[in-house]
Design brief:
Blueprint: H1 16-33, H2 41-69, H3 76-101, H4 106-114, H5 116-163, H6 167-182, H7 187-205, E1 211-212, H8 213-231, E2 236-243, E3 249-250, H9 256-266, E4 275-283, E5 286-294, H10 312-327, E6 332-338, E7 342-350
Parallel strand pairs: 2-4
Antiparallel strand pairs: 1-3, 4-5, 5-7, 6-7
Length: 353
């Protein structure tokens, strides 16, 4: 773990030194405001300047040397002994300096000599405060680095996911297109257009963190239309979209793993009523998504609905779950309902407007 130095604090990234000055001036102002001594203002100001002059080297020495050299290397006993020794050395020095500047206040001088331990506790408090700051900063930095790593991994997985969108879909769509051209069907040009729109969206338009919900829905519409051409009248495919989905944002390809796996696993087998039902309802900033599909005859060899392998189906579900947790940590709920003859996924999501 890299040392978290005070120099790493950047309230304004281009002026770290100014931020240090602001911090210490703010601490000086705090000490001046809460100094209850019945002494002239100029003397109080000078006295607190002396205090700050002891605090600054103590804090920087702790952050820049003691913590990285001992504490971060697991040398806890050495850190403790050196810290105590440092406090024991600084306490009499600060006591002498305070004694000298109070030459006009003999009662205060006597009090300082008899209460040196208070000065020691003051220095110890400053040392511990800088230690706590370092630990808290390390935790926040670790969380930030962890989140950045997660985002990088998810970006890589999204790129992989886009490159692995079921190739059988494209091959089968091309076969259907070939059949349409042989029949000189009027649907052939529309099929080519929809396929090109799907490819353009996947390759070029969903590279951002979020995309317009309208484009994501257009992608779903195109995908479903092509699947209807492939499957014809052999399956019941229903797509129901309600609500206003304009001027709303959503992370790209959030629905596609669920929909693709429904077609992959919901339309196989010899059951009579094979179906896929997809419902999307948008009410202001709330989105409800449900995809429901029939399951294969139990007498047939069963196929896992979501394989945990390198194929698009496996990585698709785990990828979208991680992306949802990162992008919508407290704004989504995902429910998987697995019954004897029906498989259903429900997603509630708060959209970004």
């Amino acid at each position: 773990m890299r040392s978290i130095l005070l120099g790493d604090i950047k309230l304004g990234r281009n002026y770290p030194f100014i931020n240090h000055v602001i911090f210490w001036l703010s601490l000086l102002a705090f000490l001046l405001i809460f100094d209850r001594a019945d002494e002239p203002a100029t003397f109080v100001f000078f006295k607190e300047i002396i205090n700050i002059s002891f605090f600054i080297p103590l804090v920087y020495f702790n952050l820049n040397y003691l913590i990285p050299s001992f504490l971060e290397k697991g040398k806890f006993l050495q850190y403790f002994l050196i810290s105590i020794t440092l406090i024991l050395l600084l306490t009499p020095i600060k006591t002498v300096v305070s004694f000298l500047i109070h030459y006009q206040y003999p009662e205060q001088q006597a009090y300082l000599l008899s209460h040196q331990y208070l000065i020691g506790f003051q220095l110890l408090f400053v040392l511990l405060a800088s230690l706590e700051f370092s630990l808290v900063s390390s935790i926040f930095r670790h969380q930030l680095e962890k989140k950045e790593l997660q985002e990088q991994n998810l970006t890589s997985e999204l790129k992989f996911l886009k490159s692995q969108i079921d190739p059988h879909f494209f091959f089968n769509t091309l076969n259907s297109l070939y059949a349409l051209t042989l029949k000189k069907s009027d649907s052939a040009p529309e099929t080519v257009l929809k396929l090109s729109e799907i490819m353009r969206y996947m390759l070029y338009e969903c590279n951002e963190k979020t995309v317009p919900l309208e484009k994501e829905i257009q992608y779903i519409n195109n995908y479903i239309d092509l699947e209807r051409i492939r499957h014809g009248k052999d399956a019941r495919i229903v797509l129901d979209i309600t609500g206003d989905y304009t001027n709303k944002e959503i992370m790209p390809l959030v629905f596609s793993p669920f929909i693709e796996n429904s077609f992959k696993h919901g339309l196989q087998g010899n059951i009579d009523d094979r179906f896929i039902e997809i419902k999307l309802d948008i009410q202001e900033s709330q989105l409800y998504f449900n995809v429901k599909n029939s399951k294969s005859d139990l007498r047939l060899p069963t196929v896992p609905l979501y394989e945990n392998d390198s194929k698009a189906g496996g990585i698709g579900l785990s990828n979208v779950q991680r992306r949802l947790k990162l992008e919508y940590p407290n704004d989504h709920s995902l429910r998987i309902i697995d019954k004897e003859d029906i498989y259903s996924i429900e997603l509630d999501l708060k959209l970004k407007i």
